[in-house]
Amino acid sequence: MSEHTSIVGILGGSFNPVHIGHLMLASYLRQFAGLDDVWLTLSPLNPLKSHPDELIPDFQRLEMLKIATRDASHGIGVCDIELSMPRPSYTIDTLRVLSRRYPRKRFKLIIGSDNWRIFEQWKDYETILEDYGVIVYPRPGYPVPNRYEDGMEVVDAPLSSLSSTFVRSSILRGKDMTYFLPPGVYEYIKEKGIYSKVSL
Hints:
Elements: E1 6-13, H1 20-32, E2 37-42, H2 58-69, E3 76-79, H3 91-101, E4 105-112, H4 113-117, H5 125-131, E5 134-137, E6 152-154, H6 164-172, H7 185-192
Parallel strand pairs: 1-2, 1-4, 2-3, 4-5, 5-6
């Protein structure tokens, strides 16, 4: 067995639903940020989200992630570990569980520049920086800060303003989201009637 310690980037989110912006970012980070793998990690509940009632059931969001990545190149995967953890889910706990479960892998957290602005509100944020490291990618309207910290690095990933909120509201209005979602995901949404009556 190889002794190589692979580096895995953890890109967490509600993925409500997963869209092409998520996959574009994951692909960029996998290829240009020195990561061996990027795991799209499904969050059942974000403690900092103001409207958790907007979430559709976990199993539907997980199924869409699986559909979205079924034809993905090596290195992009789905992680559902938080679905079996106590809620609310905290990133530090997720990273610790992953590290115990996969001792040959080194995990790094991936967040947008919008979340970096409030990173000090995260549980044990200093431990995340010291023990795991944080990769920050740019988000529209949130310039990457000039100050750098130990354990934090910035990647110049392409900007995308596409959001799950936009996708949900567009579906509710009867718009065609074929080219905004990974192949198969829009078909799943239409088949299950998802978002057509969700409170937005």
